[in-house]
Design goal:
About 40% of the residues lie in helices and about 15% in strands. By secondary structure, the protein is α/β, with parallel strands linked by helices.
């Protein structure tokens, strides 16, 4: 059967570590957003000019509108002959100077696309000239899906640029300041993490998304610790470690035991007891009844690790039959997979980008609940619970509480996968 090519049991994944190989990757439904540009547009008082063929820009125009960045996002179509001959530089310089004179940004982002990556277009001299002339930070980044598996990846390039800004601003270390890294939205206001950190003595809690200007962003360079809650931000945290800023990775979790483990890791680094116990909550009995014994699927577009969420749901009484992922599991997910292999060995892990999945969608028809809009694409009969990064950024026990609130809300008022994608713009 074709479906066999797309999956591996979680028990077999533990033993062989062989993630299902896709000889030809489809554009998996997990590929929402445009993360590299979006990451950089989190910087305060920044504007972006993206250059490239019209077909590339069309996708980014949609995402800029969805995320509310359209007032800070410009696009300049480049003809094929201009790209090949390298004659677009003058046009780009003129556009940059027009945008700077109009917007007066503190940070200017010049974004290239796959075509410029393939052709090896070099804007170093142009960037140097703009920096010197306007006395602003200029970042060149590549929104190039073709380059994602390579080194440096687009995210490496983006985080290196941010690291250089912070490196130059490093002065003294402020032990009472901490940075939270790893989300597109700021940490949810109802997260107990704010109270836990403040009671631990942190007077300043920085997040890139809440910085009001370049100077406040630069203040992050003096923080005493980076708390990383999403694995991708480890790239930046490891770079900042070079300038004497330690970091700890405490990913978002939904299982109460895993939540406690993350707080205990933080306690060990800080060398002090934290007051997280007072925020512990019991799982919602109503939500537990709704998922108990039901076949569920978990996608990789959820906030956090799909394997950790699968572990939590299994412990809550659900029967996790499918996990959709795009890449082999991350090192920190190993423990979750080990647990699942012992407690839910019949769970299959699918390569969500495998083109054969589109030919086998009927095998998921018995799944009743799909966590992640991407899982919902294949589980057409399931109630969909997005748990998406564009909805909220929870942490700690507030994450578990959010999970149960979303279960109850979506069971009482189911929304079609079509609406999640096209009406609420959680996935394209």
């Amino acid at each position: 059967m074709l479906i066999e090519k797309t999956r591996v049991s979680v028990a077999e994944l533990k033993k062989s570590k062989n993630f299902p190989f896709a000889p030809l990757e489809g554009v998996g439904p997990n590929l929402w957003g445009w993360g590299v540009v979006e990451t950089c547009l989190l910087l305060p008082n920044s504007v972006c000019l993206m250059t490239g063929p019209l077909a590339c820009l069309r996708h980014s125009a949609f995402m800029a509108q969805v995320r509310g960045f359209y007032k800070r996002f410009y696009m300049l179509p480049i003809e094929e002959i201009e790209l090949v001959m390298g004659s677009q530089v003058g046009k780009i310089k003129e556009a940059i100077e027009y945008i700077i004179s109009k917007e007066k940004p503190e940070i200017f982002l010049l974004a290239g696309t796959c075509s410029e990556y393939v052709l090896g277009t070099d804007y170093k001299e142009l960037i140097k000239e703009i920096k010197q002339k306007y006395k602003i930070e200029v970042i060149y980044l590549i929104m190039a899906p073709l380059n994602l598996p390579n080194k440096p990846s687009p995210f490496d390039i983006a985080y290196t640029a941010l690291y250089e800004i912070l490196k130059s601003a490093k002065k003294t270390q402020d032990k009472k300041a901490i940075n939270i890294l790893g989300t597109y939205l700021p940490l949810s206001e109802n997260s107990e993490l704010y109270n836990v950190l403040k009671s631990a003595g942190f007077e300043k809690i920085y997040q890139i998304q809440t910085c009001r200007g370049l100077e406040e962003l630069k203040s992050m360079a003096n923080s005493g610790l980076n708390l990383v809650i999403h694995f991708r931000a480890n790239l930046l945290a490891k770079k900042l470690e070079k300038i004497g800023m330690p970091y700890i990775f405490c990913p978002i979790c939904y299982d109460p035991e895993e939540i406690i483990k993350q707080y205990q890791k933080l306690e060990e680094v800080l060398g002090k007891k934290l007051n997280y116990e007072e925020f512990q909550v019991n799982p919602s009995s109503e939500a537990l009844k709704l998922i108990e014994g039901k076949k569920v699927a978990v996608g990789c577009s959820v906030v956090g690790s799909p394997y950790e969420l699968a572990k939590a749901l299994t412990k809550f009484g659900a029967k996790v039959v499918a996990i959709f992922d795009r890449h082999p599991p991350k090192p920190f997910e190993k423990d979750y997979i080990n647990w699942l292999s012992e407690n839910s060995p019949e769970t299959f892990v699918y390569n969500i980008s495998h083109p054969y999945l589109n030919e086998c969608i009927e095998v998921f028809d018995e799944i009743k609940v799909a966590f992640g809009v991407d899982a919902g694409i294949y589980c057409r009969n399931a109630i969909n619970i997005p748990l998406h990064s564009y909805q909220a950024q929870p942490f700690g026990f507030s994450a578990m509480k959010w999970l149960f609130e979303e279960i109850e809300k979506n069971f009482s008022n189911p929304i079609s996968n079509y609406d999640w994608i096209y009406k609420y713009n959680l996935l394209i």
